[in-house]
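In this supplementary section we document a worked example of the pipeline. Step one takes a protein sequence of length 139 as its only input; no multiple sequence alignment statistics are reported here. Step two produces a three-dimensional model, which step three serialises into structure tokens for compact storage. The input and output of this example are shown verbatim.
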Amino acid sequence: AYERILANLSPEVFAAERDRQAAVDHVLDVLFEHTAEHPELHRVFLGMSLRDIDVARIRGEFESRGRTVIAALVREVVPKSHVPDPVAAAEVIQIAAQEIAVFTVGGRGVKSEARAEALREALGSMIFRYLFADAPPVD
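The serialised model returned by step three reads:
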């Protein structure tokens, strides 16, 4: 599942989509679907990563790998003048996406499906505006 999420973080996914908002939404859909398939696993994994050094290391490795992929994508599809620090951007995007996914479909706090969808849409809109709104085209 992790590989499926990372596979959707490619320049081709964003180039193939005429609408970059649709590309952002597609990647978030994959993340949220995965989280919804195994909500208890995500809660236990996150909780254990706060108490067990070995699990924390594994979580850190997954997150580092994901940030690397996201940062590379940002470097390729967003002008540096618009997002000068792709690594920082990747970390913010990754943390926001993971937290919202676990908070909503992971069953941690949102009981209303309509509210969960509103949060997911707000996340997608926020990421799109941060990366692409008013950004000049990449050469």
